[in-house]
Amino acid sequence: MENIDNMGRNSLEALSRENLTDEGRKKLTKDILCGVATICCLAVGLLYTYVLRGSYPVVPQLLYFIGVLIEGVPVIVAGLKGLFTKNLTNAMEILVGIAIVACVFNRELILALLIPLILNVVHLLEERSIMGGRDVIEGLKKMQQNTAILLEGESESVVDVKTLKVGQRIVIKPGSGIPIDGIVLSGETNIDQKSLTGEPEPAHAKAGDTVYAGTVNLDGRIVVEVTREHVDTSFSKILKLLEGSENISVSESRLIDRFLAYYIPFVLAVAGAVALITADISKAIAILVVSCPCGQMLVSSAPMIAALSVSTKKGILIKNSKFIEELTEIDTVVFDKTGTVTKGELSLSEVVPFGDVTPEEILAVAASVAVASTHPVSRAVIAACEGKEFDRTLEVREISGGGVTGTSKDGAHTVSFGRREWLAAHGCTIPDDFPAGAPVSMSYVSRDSVLLGCLCFNDTVRKNAAACVEELHELGTERTVILTGDREEPARLVAEQVGVDEVHARLLPEDKLNRLRALTQSEHSVLAVGDGINDALILREASVGIAMGAMGSDLAIESADIALMNNNLMNIPFVIQLARRTRRIIYQNLVLSIGISVGMIALSAMGVITALAGTIFHNFGAFAVLLNSSRILRLGEK
Known about the structure:
The chain is α+β, with helices and mostly antiparallel strands. Helix content is 51%, strand content 17%. The chain is elongated.
């Protein structure tokens, strides 16, 4: 018995690849031990009959019957539960259970033993062939750190991650996984965030930046303040979301449920008719065995697992069945502007001089006061002046809603940089037609109340925004729209740059929602794309909502049907292609599995396939479905 137990454990280690839960390990161990015990009953019975030439036929029959009890009874019990509860996931057990009982009454105990034994072995191999959707999730789970280095004063101690509280400080050393969400207090490093965002390039993290559980600290020692407890980290919520995604029920899977409700009575009727007409119960048993709907059970689940695997590796989280049902029908795409089509970061686009002053001089004057401000406009100016010399000696004062002003140490000169109205109110004369035709954000520069010129700023368009919109049109999208709270001019400029068809500006969140409802009520299937925070209303209301840059945003994950953990706009046309291919393969699987089942039933009725052969042949449909579904994985390689 010890040898059998060791055999079971060794087989378990070889098959599980450490990707099973404790419950799964116990079930697999039990299945292997039952299989080994059944094989022993069969081997001893055959040895007694054909080698030892035993004179008591009841001995091998008893051994075979024990084997039937070990392997067959669990199948029969599951089949009875399926009959009484009308649980169609037990369709295979219902048909096989009837076949086992028929074999016992026909005194074919070896066949009654072999049918469930071979089925379990083949299904074990089949389960290991379902593309590894679980492998993706279990692989992510292994990235969770169980311990952390707690910093208290100057002392360090190793603690369980689950005990960490908000506000505590932890040390993360180079090469270590980040155990919890937090803010960097000191140190700099590069973070491998591929597990969450799908992006291969490391992200640089310094003091003030947020780091996330499930990522890896590559090369620097950092001290991090905990901002979320273990159960609330983005990584924990993503894992729960992924595990829930495996059980997505699409319309095609409900179609299979309705099909099986008619399929089982049909198979029983055919088996009964064949037994009556041919007076050969072995043909009826063969029909019951080959008709097991393994392929039909995998029609939608196998493609969904493959799609889940592909999307997860790209940092795309799929939450519900809209992925299949509605994303394939999208004809209108609505974008938020700031933070979605653009980076939400201002950049200097042009310097417009007034008079004889040079652009370089205007920029240097503006930088001399912008250096003391944290306003986005000031940060854009300093970024544009990187590596350039400018005066840093002014005494600077920031005026809320106006701008910044600086005075030289001797008080002889004053520099102002800010809004047009603010400078005009402080004695600076600005002509009405200056600058002409600039559809952008502008800030003006003056020295001693004399206008020097203005700086023009644009929100930085994401580098792949135009390519995304172009591919959406190629995929059949009829209409692309920007809904933004920004001004009309900069919004239209962005739309022209990326190729969006329509722009609606100066919209509050409620206004965006009303515009979206007008589109959906006009029989358009609308995909809404936003940053998941100020766009929560339209993400919920749209046919499908996609949240951009959802890492760390609870609202993004809750509001959207699909969450992109990175800011790669090309993942939007990709996920539409993925949905279309998944749906197409589901329909192909349906035709494949039904066609193979009908063919097998016909061959069994004619006596071409025996019951024993049917235990293997009936899996052709399942393996055909798995092989066809695996084509989805190729999309992720592009």
